[in-house]
Amino acid sequence: xxxxxxxxxxxxxxxxxxxxxxxxxxxxxxTIAQGEYLAVIGPNGSGKTTLLKHFNALLIPTAGRxxxxxxxxxxxxxxxxxxxxxxxxxxxxxxxxxxxxxAEDVAFGLENMALAPAEIRxxxxxxxxxxxLEHLADHPPHLLSGGEKQRVAIAGILAMRPRCLLMDExxxxxxxxxxxxxxxTVRQLHREQGITVIHVxxxxxxxxxxxxxxxxxxxxxxxxxPPQAVLTDLEMxxxxxxxxxxxxxxxxxxxxxxxxxxPGIIHGRELVEFLCSSGPKH
Length: 282
Ligand SMILES: Nc1ncnc2c1ncn2[C@@H]1O[C@H](COP(=O)(O)OP(=O)(O)O)[C@@H](O)[C@H]1O
Ligand SMILES: [Mg+2]
Description:
By secondary structure, this protein is an alpha/beta fold. It has one domain (4-244): P-loop containing nucleotide triphosphate hydrolases (Rossmann fold, 3-Layer(aba) Sandwich). 37% of the residues lie in helices and 21% in strands. Strands 6-7-8-3-9-10 form a 6-stranded mixed beta sheet, with helices on both faces. Strands 2-1-4-5 form a 4-stranded antiparallel beta sheet, with helices on one face. Helix 5 packs parallel to helix 6. The longest helix has 18 residues, at 176-193. Adenosine-5'-diphosphate (ADP) is lined by residues 15, 18, 24, 42, 44-50.
C-alpha cells in the first residue's frame, strides 16, 4: 500500500450544542492511501458530510485525531497545507462560485496562495484546459449549466494542485448527462494524475465505480471493502434503507428464482454477460 494521505484515529465528533450521547461521528479509525478512489455511502444523517469535513480541517475532532499527509488537522499552522492538499467540492455548485467570470472563479482560490500573477494565469489556463472549459473562460458562471458549474468548481480546486479531491454528493443536483460528464472528468484526473478521490454519494452505481466502499451508519463505519463485496451485501444495505446497484439487485432476484449468476455482480455489463451466456442463443 502506498503512503497514507489521510489517517483517522479514534475520531469522535459532537456538533456544538449537540448531544454527546449521539455523536455525529462515534469512533472512527481509517487509513486512506495516496491514489485511492474511495466511495462513502450511508443513510441520511449517518455522518458522511461530517467525516469529509474532517479531511480538510473544516471540522476538528472532539476526540481522537485526523492526520492529512502526516499533519494533524487540529494544529492551526497546518491549515494552509491541509487545505491545499485536500480540496472540497460540495453538492450545490451555485454555493461555490463567487466571481463574475469563469476564469476569475478558477483563479479565486489561488489569490490566497501568494503566487505570482503569471503563475496564477498559467494555472488557470491549465485548469480550464483540463476541464474543457476554455471556451467559457469569460462567461458569467451563473449562466452555465449545472454540470458546467460543477466542472468550474472542480477547476478552481484543481488549480491549487490538490493531491486529494473530497466530493460531497457532487452530482446530486445534476441531470444524468451532467453526472456522467463530471464523474468522467474526476475519473480521468484520478487515472492520469493519481489524485486521491473520496466521493460521498447516494447513487449505488457511482459507488460501484470506486475501488473501495465505506458504509456509514450512525456515526460509525460499518463496512469497508471492495465494491464487489460491499455492494452485493444487499441484506446489509437494505437493513440501512439503502439499495445496491441495479445489476446487484437483479442478480439477487435471479438467484431467488433459481438462477445462478456468479457472485460479485455490480455492473450491468456483468449481468448481461451472464444472461447472454445462459440464455438461448439466436
Ligand atoms: N451543523 C450541524 N449542527 C448540528 N448537528 C449537525 C450539523 N450538521 C449535521 N448535524 C448532525 O450530525 C449528524 C450527521 O450529519 P451529516 O454528517 O450531515 O450526515 P450525512 O452527510 O451522512 O447525511 C446528523 O445527526 C445531523 O443531524
Ligand atoms: Mg451529507
